[in-house]
Amino acid sequence: MTASTRVSKTLAFNIGPHHSSTIGPFRMRVETDGEVVYSCKPDVGYLHRGVEKIAEKMTWTGFLPYTDRIDYLSAVHCNLAYALAVESLAKLDVPERASYIRVLVSELNRIASHLLAAGVLANQLGANTVLMYALRDREKINNLFEMLCGARLTYNYVRIGGVAADVTDGFIEKSYEFIEYLLPKLKEYHDLLSNNRIFVGRLANVGEISEKEAIACGQSGPILRASGVKFDVRKSRPYCVYQKFDFDLPVGSGEVGMAGDAFDRYIVRMREIEQAASLIRQTLDTLPAGSFSTTLPRIFKAPKGEAYSMIESPRGTFGVYVASTGEKHPARVKFRTPSFAVLNLFPQILQNVPLSDVSTILGSLDIMVSEVDR
Amino acid sequence: MKTAELIGKIEQIFSAGVIGASSDGSFPCIHIRVEDLRGVLNFCYYDQVTKFDYLECLTALDSGDEFAVIYHLYSTTIGHRINIKTSIPRHKPVLASAVNFWRAANVYEREAAEMFGIVFENHPCPEPLLLPEKWQGHPLRKDYVYPEEYEGIEHRRAPLRKEHARP
Fold this sequence. Notes:
The complex is a heterodimer. Helices cover 46% and strands 13% of the residues of chain A.
C-alpha cells in the first residue's frame, strides 16, 4: 500500500475517569491518529454533589463545612470566600486579628496546594521522588493545621465573623520554624525539576495558552499569570488585610520556551510559594492582639439582598455569589470556581498534541475535579 | 472607571432598557430588560470606555415567578467591573448565548441550562455538563421535585426521629 492510498484510521478511547494525572474522576474521550491526539471531549460530573442545592436547605452557618469539600486541597480558601460573601451581605465587621489569621492560614494552604501540584506534575513525568518530597513538606503544613483546629484536610476553620480558634504561641513558633525549613527545601525542588534538562524539555513549548486566549476563556490564577497577565485578586481587589503586605506577582515570560506554556505555569506556582512564605512571615511579625471572632446571634439571618465576593485561591479566582430573602437559609449560593473555567480551554488545548503531552498539560493546569463538579 | 460612573453611562445610552440599578452596597448591579441585553453586552464588550474582555462568572437564579441571569464582567485592561442582571419569564426561559463575546460563557451557560432549564440560543454545544444524561428535571429550580429513585436505586430517607426534626 503506498502512502497516497493509505486511509488514516483513528482510534477513540477514554482517558479516565480514574487517571493519575487528575485529582479526582475526570474522563476524556480522545481520538488519536497514531501518536497524535486530534480531538478530545472532556466529560465531568462524576463528583457532582449539588452543593448549591444543599446550601438552599442549610442554615447560613451550617453550610460552612460543605464549602470545605468544594476544593479539599485549599479548604481554607473555600471557607473564606463564603464567609466574606456572607459578611459583606450582613455588613459584619471582622476583628483585625481574625483578618491577619485568615491571611496566614490562606497562605499556608496555598503552599500546601502548590507543593502538591508540582509533585503531581512531576509524578506524571516519572519523577516520583518529587511527589514524595512534596508530600513530606505538605505534611508539616497539615501538622500545623492540626495544631490550629484539629483537622488535617477539611478544616472548617474560617467562620462567618472570624475564625474558629485563636492562634497559640506554639503555633506561631512552629510556623516560623516551618518557613525556615521550607525556603532551603525549595532549592531542592528547583535542583530536581526547574534545572533538570529532562523535566524542562518535557514542559517547554507544551500546552501554551496565549494571553488573549486565557482572557477570552476566563482563566484565572497561575494559568492566567503564566500567560503574562498580571492579575491577582489580592492586588486588584484586596480582601482581609492583603493591602498592608508587600508581595510580588510572578508572571510567566516564556523563559525556556513560549510564554504561557506548561513550564511557565509550573514556575509561576513555585515562585508563588516563595511569595506566600514571605507573606506568612509578614503576618506573623505584625499579628495584632485582640479578639479572633465576632459573636453571631444564635439564629443567624442575613438581611435581604445579594453579594458577590472573590478571593485568590491557589487555582485562581474563587468567587461566591449569595442571595438572601432574609430567611435562615440562603436563597441562592453560586460558586465561581477556577477549575470549572479551565473546561473552556478544551478541546483546543489538547488538539494536535502528542499523546505523551496529555498528562503534562493536564498536570500543569492543576485541575481540581471536586471544584469542577461541586 | 468607577462602578457608579459605568452604571450612569449605561443608563444614559440604554435609558429605556434599564429597570433598576444600585451602585453601592454589597452588590453593585444594573438590571436590564431582556430585549436590550444584547445591546448592552455588545456595548460592554466593544466600547473603548468599558472594554469588558473578561467574563468572570455567569450566575442564574430562580426568584419565584421568573429567572434571573447575572453576568459578572471584568476588564483586564482598565480594571473595573460590573454586574449585569436580566430577568426572563419562567414560561419561556430563552436567552441569546453570550459565547460570541466571551468564550468563557460556554460552560457557565451549559451549567445554567441544565440546572434551570434556560435555553441559550446559538450555543455551540448545548449538552448537559454535570448531570447524567437521563436526569429528569432542573435541580436548582425552586419547584424541583426530588426524585425517589434513579436507575433502580432508591434514595428515600428513613423518617427523621422526632428529636432530630427541624422546627
